[in-house]
Amino acid sequence: MELQLSAVLGSLALGGAVLVLFFVKWWQPLAGTDRRVKELADAVEALLRQRYEVLGHDPAPSSDTVRAWLRRVQEAQDEMASIKARHDGGQLYVVRLVQYLFLPTGPVAGLAEQQLKAVRALREQGAAILDAALATPQAPPPLLCDPEELEGLPAEAGPARAYLNEALRFLGDCDAALGVWGAGGVGKTTVLKLVREVCGRVARFDHVLLVAASRDCTVAKLQREVVSVLGLRDAPTEQAQAAGILSFLRDKSFLLLLDSVWERLDLERVGIPQPLGMANGKVRKIIVASRSEALCADMGCRNKIKMECLNEEDAWSLFQANVGGDIIHGHAQIPALAKQVAAECKCLPLALVTVGRAMSNKRTPEEWSNALDTLKASLRSGTPGLDKSTQALVKFCYDNLESDMVRECFLTCALWPEDHNISKEELVQSWIGLGLLPDLSDIEEAHRFGLSVIAIMKAACLLEPGDNHRYNMFPSDTHVRMHDVVRDAALRFAPAKWLVRAGAGLREPPREEALWRGAQRVSLMHNTIEDVPAKVGGALADAQPASLMLQCNKALPKRMLQAIQHFTKLTYLDLEDTGIQDAFPMEICCLVSLKHLNLSKNKILSLPMELGNLSQLEYFYLRDNYYIQITIPPGLISRLGKLQVLEVFTASIVSVADNYVAPVIDDLESSGARMASLGIWLDTTRDVERLARLAPGVRARSLHLRKLEGTRALPLLSAEHAPELAGVQESLRELVVYSSDVDEITADAHVPMLEVIKFGFLTKLRVMAWSHAAGSNLREVAMGACHSLTHLTWVQNLPCLESLNLSGCNGLTRLLGGAEDSGSATEEVIVFPRLKLLALLGLPKLEAVRVEGECAFPELRRLQTRGCPRLKRIPMRPARGQQGTVRIECDKHWWNALQWAGEDVKACFVPVL
Q: Which intervals of the chain form a coiled coil (predicted)?
């Protein structure tokens, strides 16, 4: 038995050895093939980098030798792709073995070896070409374009032209990274914005991304900036977000402009494809702006531009331009005084602009002399150093603002994160809640007044235009931004103690008791606070701030809310988008001094009766609540006797708890309360009539109507129903209608404040007629799942329209009609003077934007088209200087099949495929 077992084992061992020898014999050449193909791919990659260097020295080769070499490089790249495809096509061992033994063209390894020798020869020839180019005196790398020839560059381009020229040369050479460094306020951000604008017109980058890194920048924060600019979706983790960014940018050429970099950033962790430079035929470049030359070098910038203060001549010109020639030459003594004031600005562009604007209303020599004395005294009292001097100059401009109210509004802008794009609407809402604006009973008047205050600050250059990535607007008229030097100064000017750590990447509140003790305003917004250790709880125990901003901490811990309940002097609390789920945080009901409460973008199921304890509450926002049901107990609103603004909306378009709004209207009717702004869901036309009867004491600013009962039309916009609905028509700013059997909308009533309309799931809607009286101020129109509509010709009569979003309207065949619809000549150009966003999504029957003739979209910045297979042409007449300014997001095949009226039309668009 043992002998038999030994024989069997011996036979198995011998057979195994034979098999091993067999497979080793045949596997070795296959493993060698893998190695050879990889060597070829690496060699071709190096050859392509060499080609990029050659083109950097000679962008338009005139030599036959160089042109022939470039042609052979392209052939080598194509041959490598063919070999790799053949190799990758047979990954199974048996398939590859058969290929190796029987293919008449020979094994892949032999082809790879032969091509590798050819590539090495091309690299040797390329090295000789480069040596010859280096030995020949070369002119500076060509500009990507001459900024002198570009029309419409901002006024600040003048002093920055020399630096802009250097940046444009970098875009034409073979370097991957450029550093722009210098003190705060010398114009680094201005140069990056100018590069972005120029590249949007003439460069061949698929994407140009300007993102602000700022202090305490984290990977997650930089990812949010990149995602916002690219219009991508948020991902739950850093790793998933990096994968999404990498996947999107991997096969695209891009220019990344990194502003306000304070420390080295790991771009690979962010998801930026590596290596930078030339890769797979794509150009990947970055420009880093920082105050530190060493940091630019640490970010891989071989070439660096040092930005200096202006020379005296340019400084004087910039100062004059901001003061105004009529002011400076309005009196014989002023020019000499003006030159002394300009000299105190130390040739720093930011100071020259802000101080110049501050002096633009000084018309007498006495005013100029007093201002000069004040400026000198301010500089003497400041700490030596360029940044400190700049802060003293900003202080001079701050003191020259027209009132204490404007100065305090200016300071609050520093509560937002550094380099943050602040929505004007959000900013004005905060000023109203903080009680900074005059007591105006009309909320619309208060908003207009707040916008005028922003205009004053922009005119003084203490605020600058921000970016609105939603419209791809650069710059934006809906957002503002505070320069980091100005923000640093503003935080020093605060009359009381402030604790500001906005956008600092905090995972817990500050622990130091000294920071909390005596702090009047606290801003921890836009962080990731998710824990409150015991030591932090001790620091919070004695804190009594008047305002607390915690918005956009998406997972705010319960212990933070428990600490907040002891802030009994709190009058302003912002908890928007802080991850509150299910139960209302009862701790808030202890804050009896509260006047402003924002709980928007949370998941709150019901409001408690204890909320009535907040007898001082004036502004309550609960917008975009994620649950489809919300319960408001009867009697709650009447207990909030000082409430002026109430906005309660669900984010769902499907269902709301039946009659949830009835207690609100009942309370308003029974108590006779006055409310400056009401935003709420309504279910019936009868509810609209009840609200109308409460006017003008109750002003319905925003209405969401759902499942309207007892009507086939929409009476709210009809002049026929003005007698019973005029109270709502006069104050309505936003109207949203979902899931109703409305089949006709005739908007001929005078609705002077209406700016936003959104219609969804109106599947029977066939006819829409909109008069000028109802649509003269409309800024935003959105239509979704309105399947019976065939056209929207009426939108061409909306002079203020900025956003038009159409989705899922299966019956829509054209957007605009012809002459028979518009009543105008067919050849007449239809102009949308202010339209910035046009979204055409899921419109399977859409065949034309306009039946005949052209349209002009002079302000268009973003066009989205998906699911529109029949749309073959964009009948657009380009505006002057519109080339490269419109981002179009669409399917690659659709883009390639578009029919263009001319290359000038196509040149307007930057495709995102």
A: 30-86
